[in-house]
Amino acid sequence: MDAHKLHGDAKLIESPLFEVCLDTGKLSKPLRITLCSRQVGHGKAGEISFEAARGRGYVQLKCQGQLSSEVSFYISVGNGNEKKYTRGPAQHNFSKSRVGRLPKGNDEWNFFSMTNPESETLVITMEIASCMEIGPLRLGCS
Predict the structure, then answer these.
(1) Exposed e or buried b for every residue in 19-56, given b needs 16+ CB within 10 A?
(2) CB 3.0–4.6 Å: which of 60, 61, 119, 127 could bond 101 by disulfide?
(3) What pTM did the predictor assign?
(4) Can you tell me the distance from the alpha carbon of 26 to that of 30, in angstroms, rounded to the nearest whole number?
(5) From the CB of residue 113, how many other CB atoms can be counted at a distance below 10 Å?
């Protein structure tokens, strides 16, 4: 991800859509990873932007379609050169909410501190597994 997007008044950054296959490739659902800035201040007066939050925010997994199964996922954030910081697993049922993230208290990241200063990039990795299936899900169904 281009870390330049974390500066200024940006409050949400979305990845391109990608497909996740369930049921041995028979069912494919579009997902995307979103980065959301943390709110600074309280109520309506609170600012929401990565700059105001000093790079702090959340990584979310958003389902663009109907997905009835529960998934488990890990999130890793790093700069591409050094060790990534991994958290999870988190379990989420997309039939109840289209957006899943790590449990409160373990969900906030400092994206500025994990940005590669030379390339101005940030690497977000999400490992997704179905709680209904054995083994990981496959990305990029045909």
Answers:
(1) ebbbeeeeebbebebbbbbbbeeeeeeeebbbbbbebb
(2) 60
(3) 0.82
(4) 13
(5) 12
